[in-house]
Write a structure and sequence with these properties.
Helix content is 19%, strand content 40%. The strands form two sheets. Strands 1, 2, 3, 4, 5, 6, 7, 8, 9 and 10 form a ten-stranded mixed beta sheet that branches. A two-stranded antiparallel ribbon has the order 11-12. The chain is globular. It has 296 residues and is of the alpha+beta class. The chain contains five helices and twelve strands. A hairpin with an 8-residue loop joins strand 2 and strand 3.
Length: 296
């Protein structure tokens, strides 16, 4: 016997008379925070090039935020999941797939998009820069890799009877040639006996579209947190690399220098030696390493 609801309807009868248009529905988008690490130009061939953390942005070719820079992304199609949409956007913008992809957060604050009610399911991707081919999408004029810095400006802490509220303000700076985009993002963490919450707020913003400064801040903090206890940094590396190159990648993610001996102890289980060496003129050959699957 079929179950009846409070109105005496079977499930088939309920679905036959259900009208989705009776309820206001949001549009759903994916926004991609795509990171890579690139070498800086070095004029002294005897000196190893420094590395920079880079983020892919597109310059919007239409309203809203015409001419402003934004994260690559788009609306989720009715036939795909948010992850499938993210992978599609990633392939369209960079020409690569089968790379590290992680869901960050769903940004759903009312008014975040002036067109309509739009929720963004954001994703973070990490790419080896040697595999990247950047092309601007249909709604963009240009696509470019921006150097990223994200540094603490100030912090405060307020004690509560049953916990605390901690507020951190960061400066997010994105630079590509003579283009400089700057935002200040505030992160507020409230911890009590029974709950813990984190909220992001854009204090100031110059040149970034929508609420993308918040999404970028969230991605950087996620990456910095995970690099301390996972192998996430290896997704930014080529197949073969030196330990010095790997340390440089850790340092640009964390935005601080690391002690060589301590770093090598930390990553010893993540990598394994190969029989290959660097062949750079002017440098003493260095052993090349690769990811170790046994240590994970």
């Amino acid at each position: 016997m079929e179950l009846l609801d409070r109105n005496g309807l079977t499930e088939r009868e309920f679905l036959a008379q259900y009208r989705a248009g009776d309820y206001e529905r949001p549009s759903v988008a994916t926004d991609m925070v795509i990171f890579t690490v690139m070498d800086t130009e070095e004029n002294n061939y005897r000196k190893l090039p420094e590395k920079e953390l880079r983020l892919l942005l597109i310059q919007r070719g239409g309203h809203p935020y015409l001419g402003k820079w934004a994260l690559p992304g788009g609306f989720v199609r009715p036939t795909e999941t948010t992850e499938q949409a993210a992978r599609r956007e990633l392939q369209e913008e960079t020409g690569v797939d089968n790379v590290y992809l992680e869901q960050l957060y769903t940004f759903s604050e009312p008014g975040r998009d002036p067109r309509t009610w739009v929720m963004s399911c954001s994703y973070m991707a990490l790419i080896d820069s040697s595999k990247v081919q950047v092309e601007a999408g249909d709604d963009a004029d240009h696509a470019a890799w921006f150097q990223v810095t994200y540094r603490l400006l100030r912090e405060s802490k307020e004690l509560l009877d049953n916990g605390y509220i901690k507020t951190l303000q960061y400066e997010l700076k994105l630079v590509c040639g003579d283009i400089s985009l700057v935002a200040v993002v505030e992160r507020t963490m409230k911890s009590t006996d029974t709950a813990y919450t984190t909220e992001y707020r854009i204090v100031s913003n110059e040149g970034l579209a929508f609420d993308h400064a918040k999404i970028i801040a969230c991605a950087i903090e996620r990456m910095r947190g995970k690099v301390e206890y996972t192998d996430i940094a290896l997704h930014l590396m080529p197949k073969l690399f030196t330990l010095t190159e790997l340390q440089q990648v850790y340092e640009v993610i964390l935005d601080r220098e690391l002690l060589k001996a301590a770093f090598r102890r930390k990553v010893t289980h993540l990598v394994e030696e190969t029989d290959h060496y660097t062949e750079n003129a002017g440098h003493r050959p260095s052993r090349l390493y690769r990811r170790s699957w046994e240590g994970l």
